Amino acid sequence: MFIKQLPKFTKKISLLILLTSFLMACQQTPPSPDETTESTEKVTLRTAHSNWIEEHFQTEIVKIGLEKLGYQVETPREIDYPALYVSVANGDLDYSTVYYTPGHEAFFDNAGGQAKLEGVGMLTPNGVQGYQIDQKTAQQHNITNLEQFKDPKIAQLFDSDGDGKANLVGCNAGWACELIIEHHLDAYGLRETVEHDRGQYTALLANSLTRYNQGKSVFFYAYNPHWIGAVLKPTEDVIWLEVPFTTLPNKMDNLTEKETSVNGKNLGFPKTQQRIVANKKFLEDNPIAKRWFELVQIPAEDINQESLRIKEGENKPEDIRRHAQEWVDNNQELFNSWIEKASND
User: Fold this and answer.
1) What local confidence, expressed as pLDDT, does residue 37 receive?
2) Residue 41 is inside which H or E element, if any?
3) Whose CA, among 170, 181, 269, 290, lies 20 to 30 Å from 129?
């Protein structure tokens, strides 16, 4: 009897197997790790940095991470601030890596503020800025404070164009540092003895380095991270000048001496954080990108060294992309941990 019923039993088993296979096929297969970015694969992002070429490095590192997460990112544009902020606020750009706080707060607010924009992450913390002069001249004439430049004899030591005034290498027109320097010249009574040289900051600094190498006195605005900090080292080649008191323009006028002091010296400029500024709607629609922005960080020392490579001739877009990829390779374990968190959080 068992042998006679075997075919019916076998048919039931076969039918059960077919039904089970059909039900399993109808179930949604869990995405593989490579599929976790499927929702971002067709999203093309737009970004920009200013005409300060050193910002391209950070932009490329952030771009590499977004590409790893499945986004497509257009070739970064060059748009100087404050227009860059307006472009992000209006949705012409999705994000930028050049949100320097507190120096760019006015740009941020004037472009629409928190209704349209959001500052994300802490891309490069602990930026330092202020006035520097060569150490040799500082020691010979006991110069430690910017207020001493009110003395015409001190100012003439740094005169590079023969008009009797000290030539201060400053910032591009429209930059936050330019506004602060202009404010300081009035607040500290330096208009009669100091001339603010404005133009392409990097080119002006290169001229200062040439003068320094010729043994001449130099006086310039310095920002770290930048190649100048890797070439003319504070306490070895140059010194930071103190200011007589803290005074700042616009949105920064509420900052105190504590917020403009570094290692016990009041440098007159706020300590700077470089963050990512993004379109608010873009962040709402792209939580993976937002999480990436929150995680990625690049030390100032690494930017100094890369900036020096740019100065020494590796300044083409393909060079800077290579520098960025080398940085990722040298920090692969940390970079991968950020990618994993951005994908899974």
Assistant:
1) 43
2) none
3) 290
